[in-house]
Write a structure and sequence with these properties.
Strand content: 15-25%
Helix content: 25-40%
Strand order of the largest sheet: 4-3-5-6-7-9-10
Shape: globular
Number of strands: 11
Order of helices and strands: EEHEHEHEHEEHHEEEE
Largest sheet: 7 strands, mixed
Distance between the termini: 26 Å
Number of helices: 6
Length: 236
């Protein structure tokens, strides 16, 4: 039976794997939103060891962490959690209670921890986007929630379409011929209201500013955001 795998795979699988470049996503989430205000004291929320996580996508979190720590000049503090909402809330509250001042920025490793982390920061009496800037992955909170989370996102529709095309094109060739290295797709950055930043030019990233009043403009100084071409295909 032909098989094309999307996202990460724990272990080896005899199939093509189509996924986003999670290490690149970690770099984007850590570098781009914090460059304008020059934030360098950053906390990363999420565990990836067996001691941290019993159930969850540890491989993705580890890749995102590697991307975050690869950013030049960023001082990354690792807040270990079990990737659950309760675990993230407790770990972030404990971390904030243990140090002063708070970090300038927080990168939340998974979508499922985002709302809990934001709540923990707010419950500590800190202003989101001002006292502490928050960036996450794969989206924010509820569509009509208080915060539109700045996040590194996957071009899910494009990945799914490409995986289906690969599947339909698969022939009865040998399994060795079908085995390929993972095809990595470029993540893009959605700019929300949790990072307190205004991005004017970001390499090859797509800045999604459509949610803002006066599409294509940011709040700080009402300056126009320059948008680069959104990636349409896999990064070879």
């Amino acid at each position: 039976m032909p098989l094309v795998w999307m996202h990460n795979m724990r272990g080896d699988v005899d199939a093509a794997i189509v996924r986003v470049d999670h290490q690149r996503a970690g770099e984007i989430a850590t570098r781009s939103p914090f460059e304008a205000p020059q934030c360098r004291d950053i906390a990363f929320v999420g565990g990836f060891t067996e001691a941290d996580v019993h159930h969850g996508d540890r491989e993705t979190v580890e890749q995102r962490y590697r991307g975050a720590t690869a950013v030049d000049g960023a001082d990354i503090t690792h807040i270990h959690s079990d990737l659950t909402a309760d675990g993230a809330y407790g770990a972030v509250r404990e971390f904030l209670n243990s140090r002063s001042p708070p970090p300038e920025g927080v990168v939340v490793a998974t979508y499922g921890q985002t709302a809990a982390t934001t709540r923990a920061v707010a419950d500590h009496g800190l202003r989101i986007g001002e006292d502490v800037k928050i960036v996450a992955f794969d989206g924010g909170q509820a569509k009509y929630g208080q915060f539109d989370t700045t996040s590194a996102r996957q071009p899910v529709d494009s990945i799914a379409q490409h995986a289906l095309e690969r599947l339909m094109a698969t022939t009865a060739a040998s399994s060795d011929a079908r085995r390929k290295r993972p095809e990595l797709w470029e993540p893009f950055l959605h700019v929300g209201n949790t990072c307190g930043c205004c991005l004017f030019e970001i390499d090859s990233l797509w800045v999604d500013a459509r949610h803002r009043p006066g599409s294509g403009r940011c709040h700080a100084g009402n300056k126009r955001i320059k948008r680069s071409r959104r990636p349409q295909g896999p990064r070879r």
